[in-house]
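CORE FACILITY INTAKE
Project code: CF-77B
Contact: R.S. (postdoc)
Sample description: multi-component assembly, three entities in total
Requested service: structural model of the whole complex
Turnaround: standard
Below are the sequence entries exactly as provided by the requester. Do not edit them.
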Amino acid sequence: MEFKYKILKGIDISGLNFLSPVVRLATGEEPAKQLREIGRFIVVPIIAFLAFLWLWSVVAPKHKTKAGEVPTPAVVWDATGGIWRFHEYETQKDQAYQLTGGTRLDTLGKAKARMAELDALEARAKEQLAAAEASSKEKFDARVAPSKKAYDDAREASKDARRTRTEALKAEAAQLAGATPEQRETFLNHLRDADAAAEAEKKSLDGLKAAYADAQTVTFPETKDARRTVTVLAEERQFLVKYLDMLGDNSREAKVADAKAKAEEARSAFLNAGPDEDLYKLGSTVLKRQELLATTAASQYAKPWTLPKQIVRSLLCVFSGFLLASFIAIPIGILCGLSPTFMAATTPFVALFKPVSPLVWLPIIMIIVGGFMPDPENHWLIVLLGKVPFLGNYKIDPMFLSSAITVALCSLWATLVNTALGVGSVDKDHMNVARVLRLGFWSRLFKIVIPTALPLIFAGLRISLGVGWMVLVAAEILSTSEGIGKFVNDMYTNGSSQSFAQMFVVVFIVGFIGMALDRIMVVFQRLVSFETAGSTL
Amino acid sequence: MSTLDFPPRMSFLTLENVAIGFGPENQRVNVLEDVNLSVRENEFVAVIGFSGAGKSTLVSLLAGLERPTAGKVTMAGEEVVRPGPRRGVMFQSYSLLPWLSVAGNIELAVKQVFPGKSKAEVKEHVERYIEMVHLTPAKDKKPHELSGGMRQRVSLARTLSMQPEVLLLDEPLSALDALTRAVLQDEILQIWEQEKKTVVLITNDVDEAILMADRIIPLTMGPRATLAEAFPVTLERPRDRRTLTDNPDYQHLKTEITSYLVRLNREARAARGGSIIQMPDVAPRDFTPPSKIRGLKWKNTA
Amino acid sequence: MRFRLIIPALVGLGSQLAHAEKLAVEKDELKFGFIKLTDCAPIVIAKEKGFFEDEGLQVEVIAQSNWKVLLDNVITGNLDGAHMLSGQPIAATIGIGTEAHIVTPYTLDLNGNAITVSNSIWEQMQENDPDLDSDTPEHPISADALKPITEDMLAEGKKLQMGMVFPVSTHNYELRYWLAAAGIHPGYYSKTDVAGRTDAEVELSVTPPPQMPATLEAGTISGYCVGEPWNQQAVAKGIGVPVVTNYEIWKNNPEKVFGVTKKWADENPNTIVAVTKALIRAGKWLDETVDGKLVNREEACRILSQPNYVGADFEVIKNSMTGTFAFQKSDIQDMPDFNVFFKHDCSYPWYSDGVWFLTQMRRWGQITETKPASWYAETAKKIYLPDVYMKAAESLISEGHLAEDELPKTTDGYKPATKDFIDGNEFDGKKPIEYLNSFKIGIKDDPSMATK
């Protein structure tokens, strides 16, 4: 029982209240009531989500733009697979490059076997694609033929008609030399009639053309599927080619062995060289080759950024910005809350800078950061951050810093204002207690003021983190700093048939992470709020 | 003007011709005016008055939380210029720090008042006072987990733990239900008998005043309220609330004080020339932001 | 006898040492930027086919969101080098826009752009010129049929809007060339008019390539000049019709270059040669033919269609990269030279290419002052680094990756004079002032400058 209440309390603090009926039901507490609660808080949202998916999959195919199709849930799922596959491939390549000895040879053998399988698979897929294309072409032709014929015929007829009319009018014009003004007027009318006829023909032609174009806009799912299979297999082949290369001749092991042999060779050439040889040259060759051996041994596969790694980097970036914002906003907010004079001095800045968009901050910050780091790779801060254990793997560069600073600049306001508010609203009675106890400034600050303000500070931090997460994606798009934003931008610029679907994937990922961050902040907020713990959602 | 009831050497806590007012100088209205009070060491004085008469202001003056605009406040011959732990205040609103536990609230005071104490001594000290108010089982609870009476006990324990020479009790029990109030009255009395401190109790309850005090001083109606003639309470201590109501002296005193207060009220109304409805003197916790913040916009997250 | 045996053995050993020798690169981990266009292919291929690795380089290839960001990243050192518009190093060096000394040892490709107009403009052009009203009209299509449309719009007080990708991009100059050749004025730049619309009959604006099709469909612009795959996208999606390729505007015109800062080139003299070697091999691989058929292009398209590179659909990239070009769904033309990466001495950094871009910058007022002919030559020499290219090529020859006859035969770095333009004008890189003065539309300079 004790245990159950601990769980319930944990659930309450983490804001996952929808789970509490499940726990209660499991312990047999008022089953009917719990089932009702489960129905309301778990089943209903699931049904709503399923309904959303259903509506989406029904509506999406009906909305077609020339820029692309709105992806259905199935397509988005497929795109998720594609993104994951790319990540897997690159990770495997990275691992392959570092494999040594028997493991490497085993893996190589397996990869070769897969390559052999792939040949057959690819051949079959291509055959299927050809068949599908042939059949769909047939269908397409059959579908298009009538409207095409109608359009072509009408066009020819219209051309003929126009030619005939023009010729007739030209002939008539030739007769006009001695004609009266009335007759000439009549001719003008004939000309007008001809124009009107041409106009009418054009209109009906346009209609036919539209029908022809309409008939052409048809997709054949079987061809599409066959093409996807071919593409997936071709991608795998592409991967395997590189993979085999990196497991075989271009593996680090092989390259190191090669470099070692060459270094040895140069060394023995130098040691055994006769007096009439250029010992200086041979000697420097030895050094060069030894150096090359060292770099080869330390070399890494230049792995491209994949979404999972980009997500982590985005999170790092948002937390860096968030921490920076907190370090700036909380002290300033406390000062604002304590001193009306300081508050008066700060208010104009808050009012002025708060509405500024991240898209405006970023370029300015990039220029400033760039100004501080003329040679970024050797700048002490970059070098220092590069040595931080986890962070170091994520290539901290000026772009990362710029994005983080932008996040900080856009998100610090909520924390600042909330902190000032919290500090300013310290209970007068609590202050009286402090006065009676004769607490000094710092004790008053840390024992009364800050604890009072904490719930509001955390409410501010929660808003800040939410704002920061939204800002970050925009900042990354603009700064091409590796992260989710860069991924979105890349997918958008790719303009491939998968682009839309990939962006939908990102929508869900960004949304999910944003939600998770918010939940985390809610937990913190609840832990520091001393009154009733149930009020924040 | 001097109406001191006792020679000065006897008086421990005094107010001499004290006035206090609020607002800008040219249109200041004094809340209290011409207030004189002298409390002997170990005396239990009750100040009784209507809501809004300025009772809390009186406590603030005694505590040193407010400075008088005229006259002076002294304690043991020294002028009171700022608050300090020698005059422990028990506020009507408990004013416990909600993020600290019962022990934490008391510990904060103990550590501050007795900076020389070792950790163990502090702990021992804190536990002693918690025990004194019978809260040991709840010592790790947070204030919001406690009932009103328990909270006021914590407040009492905190005030006592500072070992003040004077206890200023600002309507400590007025927000509590009658039963709890009775229990707490007895407890406070009991502790007072043990510790023998100088106490000034502010109250609006005649029974409470008679039960507890050595002397009852009515506060006239504001504005420009002042202390009226004191009613000495000569009933035997310890006083038993069960038998007290049957005591003719008690009944007489109660009638006297009550009728005096009723007369005060009637006079004040007549003076004001109308009937003003008095709001109960229970101020809700003020959650509106102080005006200096209103210039900023903030996001409400509730 | 003994003597004769020893010598060849020693020589053999020596030469083996020499030609297997890798350059001692100053920096072995490099970051190159690129824009998602198919002509970044040599950089991507050099990485994917391991040519960079063969030089001991680990290269990260990073997509950039636009040309400005790319250039800034190269200048600030976030990138070591990048896929650049030919005009970019020149403009940066002479201080149009961002000023920085950028140099190039390698031209990435020839041709590869096209001008696409919207369906409605295409229909109006067909009305103006009935010969165009065909499933397979005759190419090249000049802007003559467009002129009446612009005139009508001017009469209504409107101006035709067209998009290009960057003020100093080849696309801007090609679009202007095509319009001006038909007597349509695309407008001058000046100190005060940085949008280049003074006297314009058609207004050009900068639009990032990926947004071209959407902007065209929205009607904000009626046509654009851009690289692939964005013209083929327009065909595939049916939102526009490519009317002319830049191959038809100027046969085998230089398109993109590989640019680095002068500072970087000076600090990494061996690395730049090593990079150039890898790029030459990549270019050669891309242009490899068997029986006149490009054999590696399909694989290249597969690689480029990876999401971290160009990322467009394989089919779309294939349309333009495998030797054909689709003007309409019904009009797919053979265009073996639409993308040239190596042949026609493509990759050599010709001074005359630099001079041509300078003349166009002067023609349209981006260079605001009259300059003597000698200035054109000097400026080109500041930017193009044929020495680095030759060093790299010779090293490749000694390694057996390149044949002697694949080197350009030149003594001074200038291509011979050519008339392969849509208007038949002759360009001689040694006579920039005469070339400027030969255009009907464009700023003209004092002929006396020709000899200064």
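Facility notes:
- Residues 1-20 of chain C have pLDDT under 50 and may be disordered.
- Chains C and B do not touch (no CB pair under 8 Å).
Invoice: internal transfer
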